[in-house]
Amino acid sequence: MTSTFPGISISTERLVLRPLETDDVPALAAMMNDEQVAAWTDVPQPFTEQAARAWITEYAPAERTAGRGLDLAVTEFLTQRLVGVVRLARTDWHVRSTEMSYIIAPWARGEGYASEAALATARWLFGDQKLERVELRTAADNTASQQVAQKIGCINEGVLRNACIAHVRTEDGGWTDVRTDYIVWSLLPEDIEGADGQLADPDGFTAYADWN
Fold first, then answer.
1. In DSSP terms, which residues pair with 88 in a beta bridge?
2. How far apart, in whole angstroms, are the C-alpha atoms of residue 142 and residue 212?
3. Which end of the chain is more exposed for a tag (fewer CB within 10 A), N or C?
4. pLDDT tens, per residue, the chain with 212 residues
């Protein structure tokens, strides 16, 4: 029998992580049209509000129902503004593992939101969901994403050579594919014990620019 993630809300000192809602459509579309998101993900460009609505009402519910993953909106506790998304995918309920990725909106970068949201999600996965492994994959040149992985306690496991497609601007303003490596990171329950201390340091928050 396939397991599924519950529809939940996770709170931190500054953030609330919750299921995506249709009210998030405009903010989600604006966030996904960012240059950095386009560079490091396969999100279609331009990303329309219609695409955002389909993600929220069709794709995300189907992934959760099938047991493959979970998409969470990252919102500011005080303003309720959408500042990012955390995604869980390729979940293996027998192995008790999942793959995590995240985006922070361009207007919310530099506040440490990616690290805070990712760590809170990992704690929930290891605690309530009894998972034993969280995996992250970062493009070789995506240093901001790598810094977030390090900040929450991830261990670098190695490189998947030529396994990632990134995107660069062309002279005519379009996009073209470029191949690069993936760096594979893992996070186990024992790895996050020291992460809270790093995040408590104001200088420890790392700006996260891109989807991992």
1. 70, 100
2. 8
3. N
4. 469 999 999 999 999 999 999 999 999 999 999 888 888 888 888 899 999 999 999 999 999 999 999 999 999 999 999 999 999 999 999 999 999 999 999 999 989 999 999 999 999 999 999 999 999 999 998 988 999 999 999 999 999 999 999 988 888 888 888 999 999 999 999 998 766 545 544 333 233 333 44
- What amino acid occupies position 94? H
